[in-house]
C-alpha cells in the first residue's frame, strides 16, 4: 500500500522543497513567454477564459487572508506593548512613511522634469470625467468605524485597524491589571489570539504553494491582452517610472545600510512579496506574503502587525513616483510648464489621496486623475496612461511593498526586543512575543 502512495507523495514533497522564489521566477518567465505568444498568435479567445479564473483564484485566496491577518496580528502585537511604546513605534513608522513618500515624489517629479516624457505627443480628442475628490476631514473621520462589522464587510482597512488597535490596547491594560481575575482573563484572551495568528500563518503557507500558478496566470493574461505594442508611444513614461522606482529602491538599500540592516538578508526575505506585488498589482493583496517576510526577517508582531497593514493602505512610494511622473507627462502633452506652486499641489494631493486609497490594482490611476485635475490640466492624456497602467502598476506596487518592509525593518531595528534572530524563521513556542505579558516601561 505504501508503494502506491510513495511516488505522488515524494513528487509533491519535492515540489514543496523547491524555494518559493524559484517556483515563482520560473512561473513568471513562463507566463511572460506564454502571454506574448498568445498575443502574437491571437490565442486570446481560448487562453484568457482559462488564465483569468486561475489568476483570480490566487487574488481571492490572498484577499481572504487580509482581514484575519490584520485583526489577529494587530491585536496581539499591540497587546504585547506598553501604550507609550506603541505610540513611539507608531510615530516612527508614520515619520518613516512620510519622509520616504516625499523622497519618492521628488524622485518621480525630478526625473520626469529632466526627461519630459510627453513632449512630441499631441492632446487626444475626448475628455474624461474627473473623480470626486474626498475632503481631508472625511478621510480622517472614516478611520473611526461607526459600525466595526460594517467596516469589516466593506473592507475598510484603516477602520478595521483602528478597531484592532483599540482592542489590543484594552487587552494590554487587562494583562497589566492588578486584579488577578482580570489579568487571568487577559492571559486567556491573549493566548487565544496568539493561537489564531499561528493558524492564519498556516493558511498563508498553504496559499503560497498555489502562488506559482497564480503568478503564471496573472502575467500571461496581462500580456496576452495588451501585448507590448501598447507600450511604444508611452515608452518614455514607462522608462521614467521604472527608472525612478530603481532609484527609490537604491534609496531603501542606503537607508537599510544606514541602520545597519543586512541587505542580503533583507532581500532574501523581501523577494517573495516583491514578486507577488509585481504580478498581483495590489499591496493589500500581497499583505499575507509581506507579513510572512517580515516574520522571516525576525521582526516582531509589535511592529509589523501595525506597520504593514498601515503601509499597504497609506504608504505608496511607487504610486507617488508614478503620480509625479505621469502628471509631468500630461503637462508636457498639454504644453503647460508646471509652476512650483503646482508641483507642490501635486505632491500634497498625491500624499493625501494615497492615505484615503487602498492598495488595490489601478488605485494610482484615480490618484493621478485627482492630481491632474487639481492643477487644472486636461484629463484626456490620462486615458493614454490608463492603456499601460497595468505595466506601470506592477513596478509601483512592488516598490510600495518594498517601502513598507524597509520601514518595518528599520523601525524594528531601533526598538529593543522587536527584532529577533533573522536566522530563526519561527519563534519557538512561547518565545519572545508569544503569550507574554506586556513589557511595561
Ligand atoms: N496597485 C497599487 C498598490 O496596491 C496602488 C496603485 O495603483 O498605485 O499598492
Describe what this molecule looks like in 3D.
The radius of gyration is 23 Å and the shape is globular. The protein has one domain: Proton glutamate symport protein. It is built from 18 helices and no strands. The chain starts with a helix and ends in a 27-residue tail after the last helix. It has 441 residues and is mainly α. Helix 12 runs antiparallel to helix 13 (301-314). Helices cover 76% and strands 0% of the residues. The relative contact order is 0.17. The chain has helices at 2-17, 20-41, 44-79, 83-115, 136-141, 148-154, 157-175, 180-208, 211-226, 235-258, 263-280, 283-296, 301-314, 317-334, 340-356, 363-374, 380-387, 389-414. Residues 125-131 and 423-441 have low confidence and may be disordered. The longest helix has 36 residues, at 44-79. Bound molecules: aspartic acid. Aspartic acid is lined by residues 281-283, 316, 319, 359-364, 393, 396-397, 400.
Amino acid at each position: 500500500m505504501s508503494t502506491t502512495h510513495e511516488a505522488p507523495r515524494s513528487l509533491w514533497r519535492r515540489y514543496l522543497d523547491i524555494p518559493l522564489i524559484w517556483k515563482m521566477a520560473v512561473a513568471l518567465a513562463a507566463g511572460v513567454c506564454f502571454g506574448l505568444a498568445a498575443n502574437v498568435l491571437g490565442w486570446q479567445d481560448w487562453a484568457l477564459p482559462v488564465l483569468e479564473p486561475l489568476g483570480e483564484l490566487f487574488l481571492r485566496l490572498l484577499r481572504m487572508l487580509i482581514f484575519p491577518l490584520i485583526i489577529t496580528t494587530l491585536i496581539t502585537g499591540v497587546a504585547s506593548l506598553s501604550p507609550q511604546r506603541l505610540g513611539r513605534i507608531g510615530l516612527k513608522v508614520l515619520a518613516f512613511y512620510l519622509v520616504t513618500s516625499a523622497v519618492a515624489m521628488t524622485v518621480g517629479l525630478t526625473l520626469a522634469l529632466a526627461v519630459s516624457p510627453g513632449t512630441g505627443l499631441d492632446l487626444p480628442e475626448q475628455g474624461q470625467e474627473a473623480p470626486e475628490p474626498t475632503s481631508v476631514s472625511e478621510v480622517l473621520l472614516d478611520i473611526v468605524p461607526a459600525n466595526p462589522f460594517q467596516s469589516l464587510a466593506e473592507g475598510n482597512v484603516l477602520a478595521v485597524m483602528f478597531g484592532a488597535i483599540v482592542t489590543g490596547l484594552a487587552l494590554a491594560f487587562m494583562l497589566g491589571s492588578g486584579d488577578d481575575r482580570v489579568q487571568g482573563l487577559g492571559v486567556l484572551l491573549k493566548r487565544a489570539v496568539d493561537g489564531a495568528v499561528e493558524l492564519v500563518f498556516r493558511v498563508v503557507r498553504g496559499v503560497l504553494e498555489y502562488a506559482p500558478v497564480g503568478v503564471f496566470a496573472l502575467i500571461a493574461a496581462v500580456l496576452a491582452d495588451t501585448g507590448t505594442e501598447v507600450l511604444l508611444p508611452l515608452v518614455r513614461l514607462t522608462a521614467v517610472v521604472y527608472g525612478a522606482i530603481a532609484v527609490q529602491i537604491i534609496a531603501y538599500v542606503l537607508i537599510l545600510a544606514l541602520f545597519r540592516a543586512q541587505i542580503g538578508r533583507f532581500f532574501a526575505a523581501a523577494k517573495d512579496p516583491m514578486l507577488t506585488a509585481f504580478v498581483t498589482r495590489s499591496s493589500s493583496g500581497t499583505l499575507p506574503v509581506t507579513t510572512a517576510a517580515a516574520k522571516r526577517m525576525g521582526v516582531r508582531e509589535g511592529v509589523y502587525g501595525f506597520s504593514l497593514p498601515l503601509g499597504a493602505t497609506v504608504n505608496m512610494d511607487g504610486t507617488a513616483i508614478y503620480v509625479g511622473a505621469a502628471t509631468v507627462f500630461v503637462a508636457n502633452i498639454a504644453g503647460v510648464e508646471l509652476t512650483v506652486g503646482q508641483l507642490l499641489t501635486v505632491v500634497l494631493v498625491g500624499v493625501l489621496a494615497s492615505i484615503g486609497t487602498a492598495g488595490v490594482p489601478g488605485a494610482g490611476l484615480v490618484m493621478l486623475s485627482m492630481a491632474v485635475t487639481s492643477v487644472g490640466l486636461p484629463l484626456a492624456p490620462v486615458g493614454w496612461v490608463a492603456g499601460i497602467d497595468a505595466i506601470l502598476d506592477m513596478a509601483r506596487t512592488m516598490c510600495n511593498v518594498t517601502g513598507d518592509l524597509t520601514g518595518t525593518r528599520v523601525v524594528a531595528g531601533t526598538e529593543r526586543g522587536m527584532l529577533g534572530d533573522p536566522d530563526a524563521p519561527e519563534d519557538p513556542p512561547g518565545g519572545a512575543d508569544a503569550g507574554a505579558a506586556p513589557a511595561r516601561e
